[in-house]
Prior knowledge:
Helix content: 40-55%
Bound molecules: 5'-O-[(R)-(carboxyoxy)(hydroxy)phosphoryl]adenosine, zinc ion
Structural class: alpha/beta
Radius of gyration: 20 Å
Order of helices and strands: EEEHHEHEHEEEHHHHEHEHH
Amino acid sequence: MRILGIETSCDETAAAVVEDGTKILSNVVASSVELHQKAGGIIPEVAAREQLKCLIPVIEEALGRGKVEALAVTVGPGLIGSLLVGVETAKTLAYIWKKPVVPVNHLQAHLYANWLEGKKPRFPALGLVVSGGHTDLVLMKDHGKIKWLGGTRDDAAGECFDKTARVLGLPYPGGPEISKLAKKGNSQTYNLPRPMIKQENFDLSFSGLKTAVINLTRKEKKIKKADMAAGIQQAIIDVILAKTAKAAEKFKVKSVLLAGGVAANQQLREQMEAKLAPLFIPKPQLCTDNATYIASNAFFNYQPVSWQEIAADSGLRIESDVDFS
Ligand code: KG4
Ligand code: ZN
């Protein structure tokens, strides 16, 4: 089954055609990130207007001359203005083409990037979604059966990269910039906190790390930026790795699935690979926002609705609405 995925939850406008949830036939992404760089972060209205401008051409390119049997669209979570552009477009296309449309949860969908490279993760799986807006650890008992184990109490991991990068005067988005700079730095020069690392739960917190970086930068006139970048990156990795390893052991999972923009981080990938097995990490282009995993998610959780029923929900949570008992 060929599904057209549409993703507009934030500042990427994306469309993709995926066959049977596993084979990528096309993958088109337009990003408005450059427009947000001057402001050092995303401006929701600018992002939504860019979505409007880009979505139809992006869908046209993704479709080519091919035909699809169904549509899938991110309904949340995300910026409401951006989400509405995708949802209303999918609704209109479903109506005109008389095709079914599947509403997709963006956070659950991130995990499906792990089904797109010829591999087949086994259940129960532990999922770690580390993105700009979310850091969630989930137990995936089966397709559509996702239980939330814990997550960040304040800033998301990507948000911490982005905010500390800003303190160091680096452009947005901060994750790739910190990781580049960190290659030349010593992660032990600065003593940075690993909040909640010893606690027995699966919750995380990153705002203390951000505050520590702000305080150190104020105190020391000449900060060694590369060392600070390496220190920030390692502190984030240490906390994520400790909590993920603990959850993998406790729930005796058969696979660990990494997903989300921060999973593109090379050091995180290497350090996780050294410690966790069997581990699945999508290639970096499939970690950051795109529509391939939206289509894949819709295939494995095929619950189409009529176009009248589809609606955006900016506050959607990762956990599925099922009985786990
Ligand atoms: O999943 P994503 O593309 O969008 C959201 O749904 O949020 O994630 C974006 C986040 C940003 O915070 C960005 O700084 C971070 O992913 N990121 C990285 C890297 N590439 C992107 N963080 C660390 N290292 C990277 N290489
Ligand atoms: Zn995302």
